[in-house]
Amino acid sequence: MEDTVTGNTGRRTVLAFDGDCGFCQTAVRQIQRRAHPRTEAVAWQTLPPELTEPHLERLDREILLFDGDRVRAGGVAALAGLLESSPARPYRGLGRFLRLPLVRPAANLVYRWVARNRQRMPGGTAACAVPRPHG
Q1: SS3 116
Q2: Are 10 and 1 in contact (CB under 8 A)?
Q3: Which of 64, 67, 68, 19 is nearest to 43 (CA)?
Q4: Mean pLDDT of the chain
Q5: Which of 40, 48, 69, 89 is least enclosed by beta carbons within 10 angstroms?
Q6: Whole-model pTM above 0.70?
Q7: Could you tell me how many helices (H) and strands (E) the chain has, helices first?
């Protein structure tokens, strides 16, 4: 079976982030440089449209973890999945920590706040701003 995310044979897990956002790019690069995750992280804009188009609203406000052609997780859960793919025990532990029942709600609140304010974060620009809902 051909993987719709990478075009390669077999299923691969890929973290999709906003490639137009300097803060997102910086954050992902820092994780890659320090944790060396096995999960590939790519700008969602580089993925095939047939994969991303059904998820554009979510991709505007959160990272998504794709498993082949389906979304496995979004937001903090996607971040946890990326960290858990690290060969380094501390980063795997951090990923597991983010999934703990007492930690997860607080982590989700922090993630949503950062996502709404990412244009104000280090490396952020006006292009990073999450579109406001219409209505």
Answers
A1: helix
A2: yes
A3: 19
A4: 85
A5: 89
A6: yes
A7: 6, 4
Residue 4's pLDDT band (cuts 50, 70, 90): very low
Q: What is the Cα–Cα distance from 26 to 32, expressed in whole angstroms?
A: 10
Residue 83: which H helix or E strand, with range? helix 76-84
Exposure letters 41-58 (e unless 16+ CB within 10 A, then b): bbebeebeeebbeebeeb
Give the N- to C-terminal CA distance of the chain in Å, as an integer: 42
What's the one-letter identity of residue 65? L
Locate all alpha helices (DSSP H) within 7-75, ordered by sequence: 22-35, 49-52, 56-59
- For 14-69, what is each residue's pLDDT tens digit? 999 998 888 888 899 999 999 999 999 999 999 999 999 999 999 988 999 999 98
CA-nearest of 14, 18, 41 to 115 is: 18
φ/ψ of 38, rounded to 5, equals: -75, -25
Query: 110-131 burial string, b = 16+ CB within 10 Å, else e?
Result: ebeeebeebbebebbeeebebe
